[in-house]
Design goal:
This protein is of the alpha+beta class. The protein folds into two domains: 2-33 and 117-298, Multidrug efflux transporter AcrB transmembrane fold; 39-113, Alpha-Beta Plaits (2-Layer Sandwich). The chain has helices spanning 2-5, 7-28, 34-37, 53-60, 87-96, 115-143, 153-182, 188-217, 224-256, 262-281, 283-298, and strands at 39-45, 69-73, 77-82, 106-113. It has a four-stranded antiparallel sheet. Strand 2 (69-73) and strand 3 (77-82) form a beta hairpin. Helix 7 (153-182) runs antiparallel to helix 10, helix 8 (188-217) packs antiparallel against helix 9 (224-256) and helix 9 (224-256) runs antiparallel to helix 11. The chain is elongated. The two termini are 25 Å apart.
Amino acid sequence: MFIIKYKKIFISISIALVILSFASLFTFGLNFGIDFKGGALMEVTYKDVRPAQTDLDTSLKPLNLGSILIQPTGDLGYIIKTKDISDIEHSSILSAISEGGKNVPEEKSFSSIGPSVGKELTRKAVLAIVLVSLGIILFIAYAFRKVSKPVSSWRYGFIAIVTLLHDVMIPVGLFTILSHYYGAEVDTLFVVAILTVLGLSVSDTIVVFDRIRENIKNRASTDFHETVGKSLEQVYPRSINTSLTVILVLLCLFFFGPSATKYFSLMMIAGMFFGTYSSIFLASPLLVWIEEFQNRNKK
């Protein structure tokens, strides 16, 4: 009952964090990567020993080609993403990563990603997020169709979308700070992280809502506040323990994984943390707040 008793505090914290995230987004903006702006992509493979990624970064920096993304692939290869480059710049990159001719890589492929492809990818990414959100609303409305009192089923779906906005917006706000100060770029992994956070977050929220539904059905209490409070007490240890397990794995990926997945793992960690917070400290208090609002209007 502690969470329900101080619901206004927890809801206010969430509102403040979302407002700060929006402010950060409009102030700093997002730094879109090659996947969305277009550019060049090449894959190279070394014969015997693959140089350290930091060595390649150092070798490519004097070329002044802007942001260059280097991703390890296989045991001996790298995928290199840059802005649109000329033939001369292309040759300069191959020369720079050859370690002075001592370790010349074989170029497996080279392709250009035009701006139109980037726009198409952006459209598909936005469409995917919208469709996932609509699917979640419809699923929750259907799953809770027999729950009409004291809060109707469609309001469960509405609250789920509010919590999803919360769970996605705060990590995006953090990412805008990383983009501004550390040059983090929005790429396809960023979209994957958002979609994954949406799925994991709504899963956690549905577990809480389902417990509330069962307790309403079993008449655990005549008071809706008590029903929600008891439901939270029954599920929050499971939600927190599950999230901590996933976060520990993601922390290992962040500290010991390749540099290409560091921002992805960081987004996932933030999404898991705030997703767990919202399912316990935001979604259920909002249900109680809506029930109170309905009761006041009846009077």
